[in-house]
Specification:
single chain, 151 residues, alpha+beta, Alpha-D-Glucose-1,6-Bisphosphate, Chain A, domain 4, 7-stranded antiparallel beta sheet, 7 strands, START-like_dom_sf, Polyketide_cyclase/dehydratase, SRPBCC family protein
Protein backbone atom coordinates (compact mmCIF):
# COMPACT_ATOMS: atom_id res chain seq x y z
CA UNK A 1 0.00 0.00 0.00
CA UNK A 2 1.44 3.44 -0.88
CA UNK A 3 2.39 5.67 2.03
CA UNK A 4 2.74 9.37 2.64
CA UNK A 5 6.32 10.59 2.35
CA UNK A 6 7.89 13.69 3.89
CA UNK A 7 11.29 15.38 3.93
CA UNK A 8 12.34 18.52 5.79
CA UNK A 9 15.34 20.86 5.52
CA UNK A 10 16.37 24.11 7.18
CA UNK A 11 17.47 26.85 4.79
CA UNK A 12 19.58 29.87 5.78
CA UNK A 13 17.49 32.23 3.64
CA UNK A 14 14.29 34.21 4.24
CA UNK A 15 10.94 32.60 3.34
CA UNK A 16 10.44 35.00 0.41
CA UNK A 17 13.66 33.80 -1.23
CA UNK A 18 12.82 30.14 -0.64
CA UNK A 19 9.34 30.77 -2.10
CA UNK A 20 10.83 32.42 -5.19
CA UNK A 21 12.92 29.30 -5.84
CA UNK A 22 10.43 26.57 -4.97
CA UNK A 23 7.37 28.11 -6.64
CA UNK A 24 9.08 28.56 -10.03
CA UNK A 25 7.81 25.31 -11.54
CA UNK A 26 9.94 25.65 -14.68
CA UNK A 27 12.99 25.26 -12.41
CA UNK A 28 11.84 21.92 -10.96
CA UNK A 29 14.20 19.92 -13.24
CA UNK A 30 17.15 21.75 -11.61
CA UNK A 31 16.13 20.34 -8.25
CA UNK A 32 14.34 17.01 -8.73
CA UNK A 33 16.39 14.03 -9.94
CA UNK A 34 13.22 12.54 -11.47
CA UNK A 35 11.76 15.60 -13.21
CA UNK A 36 13.02 16.25 -16.74
CA UNK A 37 10.61 19.08 -17.49
CA UNK A 38 7.63 20.79 -15.83
CA UNK A 39 5.62 23.12 -18.02
CA UNK A 40 2.99 25.33 -16.34
CA UNK A 41 0.15 26.22 -18.69
CA UNK A 42 -0.12 29.90 -17.81
CA UNK A 43 0.90 31.91 -14.77
CA UNK A 44 1.32 29.69 -11.71
CA UNK A 45 -1.64 30.04 -9.33
CA UNK A 46 -4.30 27.79 -7.85
CA UNK A 47 -5.90 25.91 -10.75
CA UNK A 48 -2.89 26.09 -13.10
CA UNK A 49 -2.26 22.88 -15.05
CA UNK A 50 1.20 21.52 -15.77
CA UNK A 51 2.62 19.00 -18.19
CA UNK A 52 5.50 17.02 -16.70
CA UNK A 53 8.13 14.66 -18.05
CA UNK A 54 9.82 12.28 -15.61
CA UNK A 55 12.54 9.67 -15.73
CA UNK A 56 14.19 6.89 -13.79
CA UNK A 57 17.30 5.81 -15.66
CA UNK A 58 16.12 4.85 -19.14
CA UNK A 59 12.45 4.76 -18.09
CA UNK A 60 10.58 7.90 -19.13
CA UNK A 61 6.93 8.86 -18.53
CA UNK A 62 4.70 11.93 -18.82
CA UNK A 63 2.19 13.18 -16.26
CA UNK A 64 -0.11 16.13 -15.84
CA UNK A 65 -0.88 18.03 -12.66
CA UNK A 66 -3.04 20.81 -11.31
CA UNK A 67 -2.00 23.33 -8.65
CA UNK A 68 -4.44 22.79 -5.76
CA UNK A 69 -2.94 25.19 -3.17
CA UNK A 70 -1.02 28.40 -3.79
CA UNK A 71 -0.32 30.62 -0.79
CA UNK A 72 2.67 32.89 -1.51
CA UNK A 73 5.55 32.52 0.95
CA UNK A 74 3.70 29.70 2.74
CA UNK A 75 2.65 26.71 0.63
CA UNK A 76 1.88 25.35 -2.76
CA UNK A 77 0.75 21.91 -3.80
CA UNK A 78 -0.04 20.13 -7.03
CA UNK A 79 -2.09 17.00 -7.64
CA UNK A 80 -0.82 14.47 -10.17
CA UNK A 81 -3.85 13.62 -12.29
CA UNK A 82 -2.71 10.13 -13.28
CA UNK A 83 -2.28 8.77 -9.75
CA UNK A 84 -4.05 11.29 -7.43
CA UNK A 85 -0.99 11.96 -5.25
CA UNK A 86 -0.57 15.50 -3.95
CA UNK A 87 2.95 16.95 -3.76
CA UNK A 88 3.35 19.98 -1.51
CA UNK A 89 6.01 22.40 -0.36
CA UNK A 90 5.43 24.18 2.95
CA UNK A 91 7.53 27.15 4.06
CA UNK A 92 7.84 28.12 7.72
CA UNK A 93 9.97 30.99 9.04
CA UNK A 94 12.58 30.08 11.66
CA UNK A 95 15.01 32.15 13.74
CA UNK A 96 17.77 31.46 11.21
CA UNK A 97 15.79 31.41 7.97
CA UNK A 98 13.23 28.93 6.73
CA UNK A 99 12.10 25.35 7.28
CA UNK A 100 11.03 23.77 3.99
CA UNK A 101 8.91 20.61 3.95
CA UNK A 102 8.24 18.50 0.87
CA UNK A 103 5.41 16.00 1.17
CA UNK A 104 3.77 13.35 -0.96
CA UNK A 105 0.21 12.79 0.26
CA UNK A 106 -1.61 9.64 -0.81
CA UNK A 107 -4.64 10.05 1.48
CA UNK A 108 -6.94 10.13 -1.58
CA UNK A 109 -5.51 6.77 -2.65
CA UNK A 110 -3.50 5.92 -5.73
CA UNK A 111 -5.05 4.72 -8.96
CA UNK A 112 -4.93 1.02 -9.76
CA UNK A 113 -3.37 1.88 -13.13
CA UNK A 114 -0.54 3.73 -11.39
CA UNK A 115 0.07 0.89 -8.92
CA UNK A 116 0.21 -1.67 -11.73
CA UNK A 117 2.58 0.53 -13.71
CA UNK A 118 4.88 0.96 -10.68
CA UNK A 119 4.91 -2.81 -10.18
CA UNK A 120 5.59 -3.58 -13.84
CA UNK A 121 8.00 -0.78 -14.77
CA UNK A 122 9.55 0.65 -11.60
CA UNK A 123 10.28 -2.39 -9.44
CA UNK A 124 7.28 -2.26 -7.11
CA UNK A 125 5.95 0.13 -4.50
CA UNK A 126 8.65 -0.20 -1.82
CA UNK A 127 11.66 0.28 -4.11
CA UNK A 128 9.87 3.13 -5.90
CA UNK A 129 9.05 4.88 -2.61
CA UNK A 130 12.69 4.48 -1.54
CA UNK A 131 13.71 6.18 -4.79
CA UNK A 132 11.19 8.96 -4.13
CA UNK A 133 12.46 9.48 -0.56
CA UNK A 134 16.06 9.77 -1.76
CA UNK A 135 14.89 12.10 -4.52
CA UNK A 136 13.04 14.31 -2.03
CA UNK A 137 16.21 14.72 0.05
CA UNK A 138 18.19 15.56 -3.08
CA UNK A 139 15.51 18.00 -4.24
CA UNK A 140 15.45 19.85 -0.91
CA UNK A 141 19.25 19.99 -0.83
CA UNK A 142 19.34 21.59 -4.27
CA UNK A 143 16.56 24.06 -3.39
CA UNK A 144 18.49 24.97 -0.22
CA UNK A 145 21.67 25.61 -2.22
CA UNK A 146 19.82 27.78 -4.75
CA UNK A 147 18.01 29.81 -2.08
CA UNK A 148 21.10 30.31 0.06
CA UNK A 149 23.17 31.42 -2.93
CA UNK A 150 20.41 33.76 -4.11
CA UNK A 151 20.20 32.11 -7.54
Amino acid sequence: MPKDLEAVIDVAAPPERVWAVVSDLKRMPEFSPQCVRMIPLGRTKEGTWTINFNRDGKKFWPTTARVVRYEPNREFAFRINENHTVWSYTIEPTETGTRLTERRDVSAGVTLFSRKLIDAMLGGEQPFEGLLERGMQETLGRIKAAAESGS
